[in-house]
Each structure stands twice: as C-alpha cells, then as structure tokens.
Amino acid sequence: MKTNRNPIELLQPSGMSTTQFQDLQKILHLSRDHRIWSWHPLSPNPLLQLSFEDAGLSSHPQDLRQDSMIIIPPFGAALSYRKAWKNQHRTVFDLSTPEVRRAQSTLALLKFEGAELLVIGRKNDPEVQVHLIDHPRARVIENAEDAVRIPFAPAFNLICQTSHCPQLARHLTAVIQGRHRDSKVTFLDTSSTQENLRRAALTQIVQAGCRPDLLLVFGHAHSAEMLLHAATEHRLNAMRIGHKNLPRSLPNHARITMIACDDVTPQECTSQISTLEYIRVQNDPYAA
Question: Does the pLDDT of residue 284 top 80, yes or no?
C-alpha cells in the first residue's frame, strides 16, 4: 500500500536572487584569469565557500599580491579598506548588497550628528564587524540585556544589521528609550527588503490558515536565526537545517514547508528538498 503524502513545499521568496547567483558565477569565471582575494571568507555557506577556495579565493592577508583582484563580499567591506584599495589602484569586484552599502552610508552620516552610535545585530557577524572597523566607538546590541547596559548619553542613533528583524530592532530601541527617558533616541531601519519579504511570507501562511506542521529554515547565517525567531513569534514548529544539520527522520503525513535564506543557491534548494523527501521515505513502511 503506497502512502499518500504532501510534497515538501518551498516557501517563496527562498534562496539567493538571480542577480546574486550570477555574481557568484562571475567570481568562478574571473578566477580562471585572475588571482582572487577577499578580506573575509565570502560565504557562510560551507559548500559555496569551498567552491570559491577550490577556485583559488583566499582571505589570508599574506596571500594578497599586487596583481590580486579583490572581491568584496555581500556583507561589504570597511570604507577605510575601500579607500586604501582605491589609492593602491587595486582591481575590485564589489558584491556588497545595496542594503549593506546603504547601512554603511547611513551610519557615516549619523556620525556627524555627534550622537552615540549603536548597531543592532550579532557582534561576531562580518557585516557588523565592518561597521566597527569604520566606527570603533560604536556599540553593538544583540539583545535586551545589552540594551539596558548602555550608559546614558544625550542622544543615540541606531541602525540594524540588514538581516535583522525590524520589529525586534524597534523593541530594543524602545528598551533604550525607556532606560534613558531624557535621551533623544533615533532608529533608522536598514533591514533588507528581501529578508522582510521572507518574514512576511511566514505571516501570510499563518494568517491564511496554511500553518505547516513543520517549518524547516535552510540557511547558515544571521538571517536564518532571524527567520527562526519570526517562526517562534508565530508559534510555528520550526527547526533550522543546513548541509550537515539534517533531521534524522521526518513525519510521513505531516505538512512540511521549507524556506531558504540568501546564502543558499536555487540548485541547493531543489537538492535539499529531494534529500528531505528521501529521509521521509525511509520512515514509511508503505513507500513504493
């Protein structure tokens, strides 16, 4: 007897954009004729990063040569680095996203107002580290505990990591405002439109009564953490998966939905769903 099951659904938008994928393909093409170097590993996705390293990409300082082509990752590079590379007449291929560049420009403008600079995000994320290189006195806020520890200042200017949830960022802004009622607190939303669309997709399936039995969040970076947080807010049964972090089993008759972050290629989305379907079949005694 063959079991009827709902196929695993891929919630859109999922995975990196066509433009992002084409840019990554360009790197592999450029590596054929150029020595390529980046100030930081290019992708949190281990398979993507391995493919870049196999193509010759290095992020070790000693591997930067005069003839190296510099690749700026999607999460950007410090403005001071960019200036130095320009002065050295380096060839640069810029993969930084428009949202990342906007966040950098916003923070640079806010600095001139003289207020304390605060960045909401994950302290060890390379995108946040870029801000700290350019603005060493800026403080990073990961959670409410960090927010209440911020000492008084007459004014605070805040931005958020582009993958951060703007609602969570506004909550942390309110915590600071409540802690320092006499301070002027200004938050400028620098979150990514694409990431916000993914979170909105979760809201839509809940509001439409299409709540899955299990939501799988496929990703390797801060954006996956934020999607998992959004799923928890909607009381969805969710788990994070990666290439080496797969469930041992999946329920046969459950409605399962997967959403993928922007560090995942379209091909990886398709392949991962096939792998997950295979895992599910292994638990079905009636599978054909």
Answer: no
Helix (H/G/I), strand (E/B), else coil: 47: helix
Q: Give the residue from 263, 175, 265, 283 showing the smallest Cα distance to 219.
A: 263
Please provide the CATH number assigned to the domain covering 99-187: 3.40.1010.20
Answer for the pair 182, 153: CB distance below 8 angstroms, yes or no: no
**Structure token pair of residue 16:** 């990196």
Q: Are 223 and 262 in contact (CB under 8 A)?
A: yes
What gap in Å lies between CA 288 and CA 201, rounded to an integer?
34
9-15+193-282 has CATH 3.40.1010.20 classification: yes
Tokens 């003289």: give the residue: 114
pLDDT digits (tens, 9 = 90+) for 148-189: 999 999 999 999 999 999 999 999 999 999 999 999 999 999
**Both tokens of residue 31?**
């590596």
- Pairing state between β 256-260 and 9-10: parallel
* Within this chain, domains 9-15+193-282 and 99-187 share the same CATH topology: yes
CATH code reported for the domain at 19-96: 3.40.50.11270
CA gap 224, 202 in Å, rounded: 13
**Domain parsing of the chain, residue ranges:** 9-15+193-282, 19-96, 99-187
* DSSP E strands, the chain: 9-10, 36-37, 69-72, 91-94, 116-120, 139-141, 155-160, 184-187, 214-218, 238-241, 256-260
